[in-house]
Specification:
This protein is α/β, with parallel strands linked by helices and 251 residues long. The chain has a single domain, classed as Alpha-Beta Complex (Spore Coat Polysaccharide Biosynthesis Protein SpsA, Chain A), CATH 3.90.550.10. The protein has 8 helices and 9 strands. The strands form 2 sheets. A 7-stranded mixed beta sheet has the order 3-2-1-4-6-5-7, with helices on both faces. The chain has a two-stranded antiparallel sheet with strand order 8-9.
């Protein structure tokens, strides 16, 4: 069984998805709602798989200052979101992240689980990968039986999943292009590296265009979609339109 750590922040305006706010029609409050929906979908996918769900979050004193949210309790906000998605707030494990950078926090979590808790395999994911499904998590777990590192790539060299059976050198391991850097770190550690299918992540306006077109195509075809994310985007009224040969977001 793979322990899947979802590295996340509480869905507060001004804290989550800053690039999306800058590059899309979404306001900070709307981006926070979308982040919460994506977190719910990712948590549900992991919980429905054969993996153990760990919500790994930055504490309040490590988050950017913002006056947009009167609730200072990061864990309480995350428990509410995840508990609603799972139907049971105790179905997930919650732990505070340790580290100054994302790579540092991911590395501390993965290394602690592998070496201190002696779990068999560990994976790091983020809420920005709403298309992560139970089948991907289970497929990765099977691959980790044969390869010590399994990566799920996204656009622009990013990764949505990084799974390991043994630790690597995580310092700077998510330096762009992260999929190449993580592959090199795995090979440097003598690990065999395998890959999952490419999936979109949602961090920018361009990402949201990609996600929206895929989501709505899958929905029309009767295929599985991330339900909370789809419902949130419906409520936000965001659409993709063609402008001068390019695709853009509109409302």
């Amino acid at each position: 069984m793979t322990t899947v750590a979802v590295l996340c922040d509480p869905p507060r305006p001004g804290v989550v998805l800053p690039e999306l706010v800058e590059t899309s029609p979404l306001a900070p409050e709307e981006a926070a709602d979308l982040y919460a929906a994506m977190l719910g979908d990712v948590a549900r996918a992991v919980a429905d798989s054969g993996g153990e769900l760990l919500i790994n979050y930055r504490p309040d004193d490590a988050l950017p200052d913002t006056d947009a949210d009167p609730d200072p309790d990061a864990e309480a906000r995350l428990r509410a979101v995840v508990g609603t998605a799972l139907g049971d707030p105790d179905a997930a494990r919650f732990e505070v992240q340790v580290g100054e950078t994302f790579a540092g926090r991911a590395g501390n979590t993965a290394t602690h689980l592998l070496e201190r808790e002696e779990v068999g395999t560990v994976a790091v994911v983020e809420p920005t990968a709403p298309f992560l499904a139970r089948s991907h998590v289970d497929n990765a777990a099977m691959k980790l039986r044969r390869s010590e590192a399994v990566l799920g790539s996204s656009t622009r060299g990013r990764v949505y999943y990084a799974g390991f059976a043994e630790p690597i050198d995580f310092e700077g391991a998510y330096t762009p292009p992260a999929v190449e850097t993580l592959t090199d770190r795995g090979l440097d550690a003598g690990l065999e590296v395998d890959f999952l299918p490419t999936l979109p992540v949602v961090e920018t306006g361009t990402d949201l265009v990609d996600a929206l077109t895929l989501l709505r195509a899958r929905r029309r075809a009767g295929r599985i979609v991330p339900e909370r994310t789809a419902d949130c985007l419906d409520d936000l009224g965001v659409a993709v339109v063609e402008q001068g040969g390019d695709l853009e977001l509109a409302r």
